[in-house]
């Protein structure tokens, strides 16, 4: 037998791809602490926390409007199944978190769909789960979006647009003026 034949079988790793967007990213650089170059391993028994407190959160968002701990992700395996999942919990007392069209208040939690958009304030995060076999750890791979993930991915808008046609969450940077859009876009 060769060493190749005797080598242990490699396990695939569950990876959560997270594409981050904020309309003021270029001016305020709120994602500057995220490493967009590589996947980061997280032990299966750890919670991945997102927020502005670098002493508590593994993934820091540099914005005073973000809670110290905004939300957490917990990796788990479903009972009597080999399927791995993520649970998302809102840890902000001030800001509601929306996962697709489900609104989560403080300490509310739900299973993360395999592909969804997480929103809070002006933040939009496209989360996509790439399944794997490993039970010891998972990976998070952050990406930076150039355009809003709601438009870029051709997903339906999660917020109703008022009759004026202007969504307040899109134009919160004071130095940018709204642009007129065709109602069919």
UniProtKB/TrEMBL annotation:
UniProt keyword list: Cytoplasm, Immunity, Innate immunity
GO terms classed as biological process: innate immune response; positive regulation of canonical NF-kappaB signal transduction
Principal location: cytoplasm
Gene Ontology cellular-component annotations: cytoplasm
Signal sequence extent: none
Entry-linked CDD domains: FHA_TIFA
Subcellular location: Cytoplasm
Record carries keyword Cytoplasm: yes
Pfam family of the protein (one): FHA
Domain (FHA): residue spans on this chain: 49-121
Family: Belongs to the TIFA family.
Protein name per the record: TRAF-interacting protein with FHA domain-containing protein A
Gene assigned in the entry: Tifa
């Amino acid at each position: 037998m060769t060493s190749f034949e005797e080598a242990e079988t490699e396990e695939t790793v569950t990876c959560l791809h997270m594409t981050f967007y904020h309309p003021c990213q270029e001016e305020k650089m709120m994602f500057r602490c995220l490493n967009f170059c590589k996947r980061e391993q997280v032990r299966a028994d750890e919670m991945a926390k997102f927020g502005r407190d670098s002493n508590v959160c593994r993934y820091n968002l540099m914005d005073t409007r973000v809670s110290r701990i905004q939300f957490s992700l917990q990796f788990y395996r479903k009972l009597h199944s080999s399927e791995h999942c993520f649970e998302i919990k809102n840890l902000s007392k001030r800001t509601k978190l929306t996962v697709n069209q489900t609104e989560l208040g403080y300490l509310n939690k739900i299973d993360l769909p395999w592909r969804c958009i997480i929103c809070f304030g002006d933040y939009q995060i496209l989360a996509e789960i790439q399944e794997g076999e490993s039970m010891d750890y998972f990976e998070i791979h952050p990406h930076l979006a150039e355009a809003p993930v709601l438009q870029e991915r051709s997903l339906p808008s999660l917020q109703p647009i008022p009759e004026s046609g202007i969504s307040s969450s899109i134009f919160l940077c004071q130095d940018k003026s709204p642009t007129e859009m065709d109602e069919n876009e």
